[in-house]
Automatic annotation (TrEMBL):
GO MF assignments: acetylpyruvate hydrolase activity; metal ion binding
Lineage: Bacteria, Pseudomonadati, Pseudomonadota, Alphaproteobacteria, Rhodobacterales
Domain of life: Bacteria
Pfam families noted in UniProt: FAA_hydrolase (PF01557)
Protein name in UniProt: Fumarylacetoacetate hydrolase family protein
Keyword Glycosyltransferase: no
InterPro entries the record matches: Fumarylacetoacetase-like_C, Fumarylacetoacetase_C_sf
Residues covered by the Fumarylacetoacetase-like C-terminal domain: 17-210
UniProt keyword terms in alphabetical order: Hydrolase, Metal-binding
Amino acid sequence: MPVLPVKGQGTFPVRRIYCVGRNYAAHAAEMGDEVDREVPFYFTKSAHALLQSGQDMPYAPRTTDLHHEIELVVAIGTQTENVAKEEAIDAVFGLACGLDMTRRDLQAAAKEQGRPWDTAKDFDNAAIIGPITPIADAGIWGGLPIQLRVNDMVVQDARLSDMVWSVREIIADLSTLYTLQAGDLIMMGTPAGVGSVNPGDQLVGSIGALDPVMTKIV
């Protein structure tokens, strides 16, 4: 089973990876989409798409437009179903920085044809995630800056408070669709500034004092 390191506490076996779509209005706009403020929407990545921070990412096959997307990652620590928003944070084990890597050309083609995004989002090494910080050690994190640098140039820069749907709201909603379990991850969506990467590029993503997520495209 794929695992992630936990800061000071061993490892976290990863079960499923849920991803929130269009959770930053500015990113939705740059993609030519509108945010649905009534109901969030989701897609998934296989746990076997996981790549630990610090490892190189081979440039993905069948694409000429591989994009970066920096995201907050929420690690679920307990079975949760139909939870109220006010209690949803009790399900969180910890937080991490992640990269939702995307074959943008395949996604655009899928959108045009009204097809699922699976090949654009769920592929080897498409979920690059840093060490998990236990929620008790994360401090005050709701408004933290979220930033990605590519080759030391800032390309994505926002705050977690810019999210359309908060962590509490997403867990509450997602728990009506699935029984969340310990080992599940939720990638909370990306701010504006996504763009293509090329072999040789160095990516470093940060969210406040959480351990950064890092990779080199090879």
